[in-house]
Amino acid sequence: MDEGIEKLVDEIRLKQYPDADVVFAAGSIVRGEGTAFSDLDLVVVYPQVPQAYRESFRRGGYPVEAFVHDPATLEYFFLEVDRPSGIPSLPQMVVEGFEVPGPSSTSRMLKEMARSVIAAGPPALDVDTERRMRYSVSDLLDDLRAPRTHDELIGAGTRLYELLADYHLRRTGHWSGRGKSVARALQSADPALSVRYGDAFDRLFEHHDSGPVVRLAEDLLRDAGGPLFEGYRSDAPAAWRRDAVK
Predict the structure, then answer these.
(1) What three-state secondary structure class fits 133?
(2) What is the pLDDT of residues 44-84, one digit of tens each?
(3) Could you tell me which residue, 244 or 150, shows the higher pLDDT?
(4) Alpha carbons 99 and 107: distance in angstroms, whole number
(5) Which residues are paired to 53 by β-bridges?
(6) What is residue 198's three-state secondary structure?
(7) What pLDDT, on a 0 to 100 scale, did the predictor assign at position 243?
């Protein structure tokens, strides 16, 4: 990690979180991939906190996102929030995080916990969730086959970029991503697919050519049983009703 960033993180720790056991500094800035608008991500771990929280502020010219935890709340978020979502945000920050003021028995224990969560992978999709996701992808795919306007093409393509990757990665047992992390998740799971995925959506967004994306989606859906429309049903909870006003 850049010495200037390490010094800044230590200053934040001493001034804002002086009683914390460890601060993990992570994200694109720490990886050397940051831009002028990138966040500095911090996972701040105390021996105990009343409740976990996150806060945003600026220090040293950087926007900072701090996720404040103790070991028990961090484990809860690992297992009950991030793992079911299929996106290992906090575990990944801890695994890749640079420890400030330095490695300790606590930081090593937390890194091992995070590594075990990531190694276990996300939970398998249940049948209802898989069908719902496949239906949503299929619906957007139809919107791209014959868009009525350029705006519809971009709107459908933008939604499909994330949903198609999320569905394919989760269905095949891989960790997924959101927004800008989609490309990293695809690269980690399947480098060749990542290249094809990026090229297809480049054609869509730069040249308004939906053909490569349509073919890509059809290929990814084929192994799952193909597009889903006919026969799909989604039941609302029985309690979702308002009694008629008398």
Answers:
(1) helix
(2) 999 999 999 999 999 988 899 999 999 999 999 999 999 99
(3) 150
(4) 7
(5) 68
(6) helix
(7) 83
